[in-house]
Design brief:
It contains four helices and no strands. The protein has 80 residues and is mainly α.
Length: 80
């Protein structure tokens, strides 16, 4: 592992200490887990999986406007 320093606010330090006591994990371990989680959430692989899991979630909704019709109207207005 590589040692590094970060600056955190007093409130962040208090919260981190509280989480450390509650979980039984060291503050360093919690910080590493948070960094891993943050990095994973922005990875391209994770983003693709999230997009795939969201595909079609509105397909059966009947309360939404007809987006194709709205788009056609906007296209016609834009062409004029």
């Amino acid at each position: 592992m590589i040692r590094t320093q970060v600056y955190i606010t007093e409130q962040e330090r208090k919260q981190l200490g509280k989480l450390s006591r509650q979980s039984g994990k060291s503050q360093s371990e919690l910080i590493r887990e948070a960094i891993d989680f943050f990095c994973q959430s922005f990875s391209s692989e994770n983003r693709l999986n999230l997009l795939r899991s969201a595909r079609g979630i509105w397909k059966d909704r009947t309360d939404l406007s007809d987006f194709q019709k709205i788009r056609q109207e906007l296209d016609r207005d834009f062409e004029e």
